[in-house]
């Protein structure tokens, strides 16, 4: 008799197979104490395949499912649809879950007798390619990073490190597939209106700091695009002060760093903020003219 699957781990991937393999290797070494899990890799690249080494497919219960509709939230919804587990675990293809990630989550859900947990999340610490030789983007990320504990105070969570009962996700209709960004804030905000978002320090997923400034520019363009779709599409004039405030906050942040960190770091942070802000201006005009945000 086959065991009932408890965890369905959903990982969207888009042209990122090398880092996906690192993520899967981390999952291969989870201390799961015999309870069953499956991994759903959702290939979001309609022009390419995802190939996983035999050593991983022999050890892990992996399914690779194609989702041609662009966007990680569309991919995650496909994973939700095909998941067999009672609990869904979301992470990203570039992430590295801690060895105790599943086991620690298991113990928390095992004691959730009243089924009060809407989302279980935890820290997402950054790691660097070479901690002694950071790029400008990595220096910026070192001083920003993921403040997941603050997100939880606002009733939010991020999909790099997210556990939920499958029926809770389904109750709220899954993610908004039209969003390229902010979909996790959108859904977690809905869930937190009814259930608890629980933050635990031992539910850990490691995330690489972005190496290139262009990657940060694209990230913030996606965030602005997500905010536009969620809040300003019907009122584009209100988007103008939102973007101006975004730009001012970036410059205010960078200027403060000239007084708190070494000059080589503060200057690098300023240049990154300047690049991010120029990207924000481009995204602003792209969106108000009816263009689509970057994926």
Report on the structure:
The protein is of the alpha/beta class and 295 residues long. The chain has 2 domains: 5-208, Spore Coat Polysaccharide Biosynthesis Protein SpsA, Chain A; 213-288. It is 46% helix and 16% strand. It has helices at residues 17-28, 54-59, 72-82, 101-110, 136-142, 148-153, 166-171, 183-192, 213-232, 236-257, 263-288, and strands at residues 5-13, 36-43, 62-66, 87-90, 96-97, 117-121, 126-127, 162-165, 196-199, 205-208. The strands form 3 sheets. Strands 3-2-1-4-8 form a 5-stranded mixed β-sheet. The chain has a 3-stranded mixed β-sheet with strand order 5-10-7. β2 (36-43), α2 (54-59) and β3 form a beta-alpha-beta unit. α9 runs antiparallel to α10 and α9 crosses α11 (263-288). The longest helix is centred in the last third of the chain and has 26 residues, at 263-288. The N and C termini lie far apart (43 Å).
List the helices and strands and how they pair.
Blueprint lengths: L4 E9 L3 H12 L7 E8 L10 H6 L2 E5 L5 H11 L4 E4 L5 E2 L3 H10 L6 E5 L4 E2 L8 H7 L5 H6 L8 E4 H6 L11 H10 L3 E4 L5 E4 L4 H20 L3 H22 L5 H26 L7
Parallel strand pairs: 1-2, 1-4, 2-3, 6-9, 7-10
Antiparallel strand pairs: 4-8, 5-10
